Amino acid sequence: MELTNRELIDITNALQAAAEKTYPVRVAFAIGKNLKALKAEYQDYAETKAELGKKYAKRDEKGQIIQDQQGNAAIQNGKMQEYLEELDQLLDEKVTVNFRMINFNDIKNREDLTGNDLYGLQVMLDGEPE
Prior knowledge:
By secondary structure, the chain is mainly alpha-helical. It has one domain. 51% of the residues lie in helices and 8% in strands. The chain has four helices and four strands. It has helices at 5-18, 25-56, 80-92, 115-121; strands at residues 2-4, 94-96, 102-103, 125-126. α4 links the parallel β3 and β4. α1 crosses α4.
């Protein structure tokens, strides 16, 4: 399935939350495999984002990156718009993830699944609710 990095981040976070619940072994295995595939793509995104941060980072007189209050690279004065445009391009880049599918019937009777859980699980569901 083709996803943007933006979707990849959202789905990874939602599926991680859904993974905290207990499932039959086949469903749990599929969730684990899918999280592993998503995290591999996320790692590539995170590395590219870090490089982008370094490119636009403020540096001290020794060339060391200056961090903001959240621990992220502080962006050079006058470069924030350029940085945000490149970050937006990165978020819109497409990646392909091969998901292990489960049937909707495997989870249809689960009353403990939240909307966020279902958002994460939707990419791996075959079948429709009745």
